[in-house]
């Protein structure tokens, strides 16, 4: 069965954790012991309803404050599909954790509190979904029970989001609007009688229908070498296999390949997976490949098909989402991790800060602060083999690591 | 030559990718092996990641001294068959030397004491990456865990300040003294693990299958009465029941479940229909709302 990875986003108190709890409850995915624990805790806290956020807010600090701080990964299945939901924080301080959760998602749910409409965090979440090129985005207009299930209110919010979408440069996104009440269960799993004016599907019905394709839409095959396998046993004395995961396309025996960055040419001799050999390996497979010629290949090198080569470069233009308290400043040095490859990187220019309401850019800022998104230029200590992010997500993204703290401080999208 | 096309299941491919990142990024990795189904699954995935080479790191078991004998026998045999080094460190040694104090009474367990022995062993061998079989679906604090989870030199997890982990780029850079806990099967569910064991025909210890055992009931849970380490009041009546174990922890905190599942296909079926979560039978999680989070902050898995 295919797995659909979904991320949630929304402002504080928009009800993300409650929505997930409601989905788990209405799809009967909560086991008896977990449900009993939620009932017990809700009673203890004096609530006259079940506090479903208790199912997902796994940290003490989250339960104390009633907010989600870090991503929780929730797993459940219906008869039609398996799901992984990344329940991500809404608080602006934890935007980086939202990016963490959303980076591997195939679909995203943006929650909006019907009473408040589109707020600053909505812009940010909508923008990040666009930046990450998430194809299917559900705009869940929540707490409809608190606005008397007003069709007018729903249409007003829908219009505002459609206006935002019209300004985004990512045009392949599918937007779906659903009015719901996570607390009461309207249009989550079961169709609501309170919204007779809404002809669309329930949230779960919609999610069950979505295709769970790979996050790469279309691209050419990329094989970054993770490690070289040399058993040096009697049986496999001369075995030299390149272990890695295939991104974006397929490889078969006999394919002419280029080893990057050296651009040495060879042919695929064999494809191994555990104790078996295969003629062809598909996108997403972690395999071991041998080549016909005894060429020099090491970790960080990349095998690609001849004539499908990416750009080999020591300079990058990228959009970056900054995730560290210490701001990014031009002329600073970082480690760059591009897939499994490492290099040193110097920020040569911080060109602009991008406003997340699509209203433009601030040019030549002095620094980029936590949770801001900007355009930068980088100089690299060695050449990397890269694609643009909109061509190949895995080969078009990178992270920056602060050499002093070893922390991951930014995620970049190559333009 | 097999002409088939390989398209490895996404979860298996992800786990293999993670194993290879560990070996490429760290000097001294170790696989924490309890003899349970999750760590047995890890061993198979590690074999696949590096074949035809051998698994390039040792296995380590933190033995509480209260493990099921079936598990210990299985552990030793598996390590021998794989030709992989097995390190065993015993909680009993720390109890004997007075470094840790054993609990007493009806809920006494050595589970918490493992942390100290684990941290000692990490320091003794200088391990910088400890691979474990924890899954995010097990427990709500574990649902928050990164795949590469940095621990400081006290083994502590700073749950409020975790590194962002985007796409599948894993940042293994650490300072001397820190270590990374690595969870290759983070995204697997209990059912995924059982289905994989069935599909791969992997051998597991016999206690996972239904068998007749002397048991008693306390707080609605079924405990093994065969083993002297499980505290039992005299009025707690021993009866023979057909049971199996869903997790393999320390005997003193792992309860059995009534079961008729005598083979792997029946186990998979039973898990699919179960209305109780896996850790519902673990008394160590029931100590408080935050039992797992607190243990993890102190260096537990």
Automatic annotation (TrEMBL), chain A:
Its EC number(s): 2.7.7.4
Keyword Magnesium: no
InterPro entries the UniProt entry points to: CysN_GTP-bd, CysN_II, CysN_NoDQ_III, G_TR_CS, GTP-eEF1A_C, P-loop_NTPase, Small_GTP-bd, SO4_adenylTrfase_lsu
Gene3D superfamilies xrefs: P-loop containing nucleotide triphosphate hydrolases (3.40.50.300), Translation factors (2.40.30.10)
Record's keyword annotation contains Glycoprotein: no
One annotated GO biological process: sulfur compound metabolic process
Domain Tr-type G per the UniProt entry, residue ranges: 1-217
One MF annotation (Gene Ontology) recorded for this entry: ATP binding
Keyword terms, alphabetized: ATP-binding, GTP-binding, Nucleotide-binding, Nucleotidyltransferase, Transferase
Domain of life according to the entry: Bacteria
UniProt enzyme class: transferase
Name of the protein in question: sulfate adenylyltransferase
Organism whose genome encodes this protein: Tenacibaculum todarodis
């Amino acid at each position: 069965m295919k797995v659909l990875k979904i991320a949630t986003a929304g402002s504080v108190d928009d009800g993300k954790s409650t929505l997930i709890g409601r989905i788990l409850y209405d799809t009967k995915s909560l086991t008896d012991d977990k449900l009993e624990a939620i009932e017990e805790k809700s009673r203890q806290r004096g609530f006259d309803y079940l506090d479903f956020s208790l199912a997902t807010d796994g940290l003490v600090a989250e339960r104390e404050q009633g907010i989600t701080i870090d991503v929780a990964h929730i797993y459940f299945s219906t008869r039609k599909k398996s799901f992984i939901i990344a329940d991500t924080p809404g608080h602006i301080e934890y935007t980086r954790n939202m990016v963490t959760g959303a980076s591997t998602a195939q679909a995203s749910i943006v929650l909006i509190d019907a009473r408040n409409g589109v707020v600053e965090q909505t812009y940010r979440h909508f923008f990040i979904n666009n930046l990450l090129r998430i194809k299917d985005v559900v705009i869940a207009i929540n707490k409809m029970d608190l606005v008397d299930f007003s069709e007018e209110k729903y249409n007003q919010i829908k219009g505002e989001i459609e206006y935002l979408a019209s300004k985004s440069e990512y045009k392949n996104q599918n937007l779906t609007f659903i009015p719901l009440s996570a607390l009461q269960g309207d249009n989550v799993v079961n169709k609501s009688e309170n919204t007779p004016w809404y002809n669309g599907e329930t949230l779960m019905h919609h999610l069950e229908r979505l295709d769970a394709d790979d996050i790469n839409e279309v691209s050419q095959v990329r094989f970054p070498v993770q490690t070289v396998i040399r058993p040096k046993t009697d049986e496999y004395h001369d075995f030299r296999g390149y272990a890695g995961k295939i991104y974006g396309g397929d490889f078969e025996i006999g394919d002419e390949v280029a080893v990057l960055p050296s651009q040495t040419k060879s042919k695929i001799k064999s494809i191994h997976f555990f104790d078996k050999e295969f003629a062809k390996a598909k996108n997403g497979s972690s395999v071991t490949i041998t080549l016909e010629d005894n060429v020099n290949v090491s970790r960080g090198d990349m095998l690609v098909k001849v004539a499908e080569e990416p750009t080999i470069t020591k300079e990058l233009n990228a959009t970056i989402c900054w995730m560290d308290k210490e701001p990014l400043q031009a002329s600073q040095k970082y480690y760059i991790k591009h897939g499994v490859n490492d290099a040193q990187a110097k920020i040569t220019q911080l060109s602009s800060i991008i406003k997340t309401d699509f209203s433009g850019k601030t040019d030549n800022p002095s620094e980029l602060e936590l949770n801001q998104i900007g355009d930068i230029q980088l100089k690299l200590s060695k050449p990397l083999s890269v694609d643009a992010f909109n061509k190949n997500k895995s080969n078009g993204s990178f992270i920056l690591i602060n050499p002093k703290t070893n922390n991951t401080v930014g995620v970049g999208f190559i333009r | 030559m097999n002409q088939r096309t390989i398209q490895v299941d996404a979860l298996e491919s992800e786990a293999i990718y993670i194993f290879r990142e560990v070996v490429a990024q760290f000097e001294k990795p170790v696989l924490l092996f309890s003899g349970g189904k999750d760590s047995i699954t890890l061993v198979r995935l590690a074999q696949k990641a590096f074949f035809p080479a051998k698994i390039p790191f040792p296995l380590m078991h933190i033995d509480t001294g209260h493990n099921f004998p079936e598990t210990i026998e299985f552990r030793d045999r598996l390590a021998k068959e794989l030709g992989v080094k097995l390190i065993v460190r015993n909680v009993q040694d720390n109890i004997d030397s007075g470094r840790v104090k054993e609990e007493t009474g009806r809920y006494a367990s050595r589970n918490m004491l493992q942390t100290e022995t684990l941290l000692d062993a990490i320091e003794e061998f200088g391990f910088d990456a400890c691979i474990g079989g924890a899954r995010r679906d097990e427990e709500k604090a574990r649902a928050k865990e990164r795949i590469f989870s940095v621990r400081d030199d006290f083994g502590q997890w700073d749950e409020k300040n975790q590194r962002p982990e985007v796409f599948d780029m894993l940042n293994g850079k650490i300072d001397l003294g820190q270590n990374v806990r690595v969870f290759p099967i983070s995204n697997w569910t209990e059912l995924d693990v059982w289905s994989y064991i069935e599909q791969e025909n992997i051998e597991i210890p016999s206690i996972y299958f239904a068998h007749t055992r002397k048991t008693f009931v306390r707080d609605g849970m079924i405990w093994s009465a065969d083993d002297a380490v499980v505290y039992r009041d005299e009025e707690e009546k021993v009866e023979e029941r057909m049971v199996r174990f869903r997790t393999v922890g320390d005997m003193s905190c792992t309860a059995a479940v009534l079961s008729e599942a005598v083979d792997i296909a029946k186990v998979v079926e039973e898990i699919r229909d179960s209305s109780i979560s896996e850790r519902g039978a673990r008394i160590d999680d029931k100590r408080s709302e935050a039992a797992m989070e607190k243990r993890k902050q102190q260096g537990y898995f």
